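yo

u said u wanted the structure for the complex thing, so here. seqs first:
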Amino acid sequence: MPDAMIKRLQADLLNATRLWRTFRSQALLSALGVVVGVAGLVILIAVGGGAKRELEAALGSLGAGAVLIRSDADATGTRPVEQRFVDRALTLLGPQIEASARVQSTTVHATTAQGETGDFRRLATEGSYREIFRLRLYAGRFITAHDIREAQRVCVLTWEAARRLFPNGQVLGQQLRIDGDWHTVVGWLQPSGSQLPELNALNLADINLRIYTPLQVRTVVTRTPLDEVVLKFRSEARMSSAIELLQRMLAHNEESAELIIPIELLRQQQATQSMFQLFLLAVAGLMLVVGGVGIMNTMILNVVSRRPEIGLRIAVGATQRDIVQQFVCEALVLAAAAGAAGILVGYVVVALIGWGTDWSMAFDASAAVLGFTVAVTVGGVFGGYPALLAASVSPIESLRRAA
Amino acid sequence: MIEVRGLSKSYAGPGAPLMVLRDLSFSLGEGEFLSLMGSSGAGKSTLLNVLGCLDTATQGSYCLAGTEVSGLSPRELAQVRNRDIGFVFQSSHFVDYLDLADNVALPGTYGDSDNGAADRERAVGLLDSVGLGERQDHRPSMLSGGERQRAAIARALFNNPGLLLADEPTGNLDEDNVHNVLAIFRRLNREGLAILMVTHDPQVAAQAGRQARLDDGVLIDA
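structre next:
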């Protein structure tokens, strides 16, 4: 680009900032729509990103190939899963299963030697449970096969359960009475898992208020039913075909159990979320269009009121192209300033939402880049018509009218 | 500087075309000062617009500084306006949101210069030459009518044009300011600038070295 053209462009941009500084209230009012639209876009991306991160975390902790066979509660109460059904399923699906964990689940009252008490969800299970759900240890160890075989009275506490029962932080080796029996605390888990209310079907709401104990072997031997069995398949593809078989088996044996597929729940949640995001995106888009129309309206009024200026510029050597460039620059500067303000407002609102609620928010620089790009594009598109209008002004007419 | 031969200008109307300028022929040499009088509607402003390359003639030839302008493209006409012609209007138009120096430097924006700082420096020098150097940072709205007209002359001179076209430059001024503006015109004319000034005032017209009248599109005594 020749130096003279660069100088002209710089002059247009500089003069545009002078123009809008001179007509502040006009600029503020016409840019408001773009400010709100861009802020909405930034908020939408932050909220959507946060929800996506939450879902991904949930998926990561559950595993894509996990299936839960859970006893189905009906009007007569809970009817646990029969162990022999589980045995048969494991035999049939054996090669496709990477890991399985049996679970006996009850609500218990726990008391420490120091007198701290509380109600918790006890999950009597196997070591494989930790692998399937990717539970991370903060200290100590998880349930082992030895614990189950020897019917050891040991327990592993989740992060929050340990904090409530042992506020002084001394957790490992402490004694805990669970429903009348004393257990030794051998492990302490890191805080983990999803708090998504949409995943309540997975009983994850109390994921940080659990006590894990060894599966009660005696009940397995005597074929006492289970509350839940978790199967982890080697791949999602293998899981799909196995689910069909499991459903047929459940129907054939009239088992009062249901199949819960976490990935399906998450997909449903994602689909609902995508629809909601699309709706919000449409609202933000509408605001941006309204903002663009606001800018166009202001620019058209500008063209009308500044005809003598346009005539003067043509008289001193401006071409139609120069006039178009000048007015497009003015629209772009206004839209860019509105975009920057919208980004700022958006981030402040996101910070306030994050501070005031437990919503997960994702601060993403790409939201700022996108918001700014969209704002400048809106300015360019909606500033184009007024610029062409300005270029069509007759210098003779405009100078004569102003005389 | 100017060579006009058989120049006519007409506008299409509901009936026959409206003839505004009829077969004009005259010339204006470098350093000449021509005043043009005539009643309203005689075609003075139209002639000025054609000579200023803001409008085109229907017929005839118009040669400015050795260039035949009737066949030039809009872009080339813009270059001619920027480089060779300075305008002073009856109402001195300014860009309100720019200060005085930037207003005077406005023709530089559309010229070949690539140095904005040098443009502003030159604008300040021109403002000095019309006695407004200290008002360089002021907004045009803060100036009196006489000051605005002097600033408009400074702007017209920015690109060192060979021709100054003035349309009733003293029409809105009091006696003292008329005297000041004409004094500047005479000085510029002595320095070699060709000036064509349209006026209604015979006393103002008498300040020019040559005088002519335009009567119903026909030039008399040019």
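Residues 66-234 of chain A form one domain. Residues 262-305 of chain A form the longest helix (44 residues).
cya
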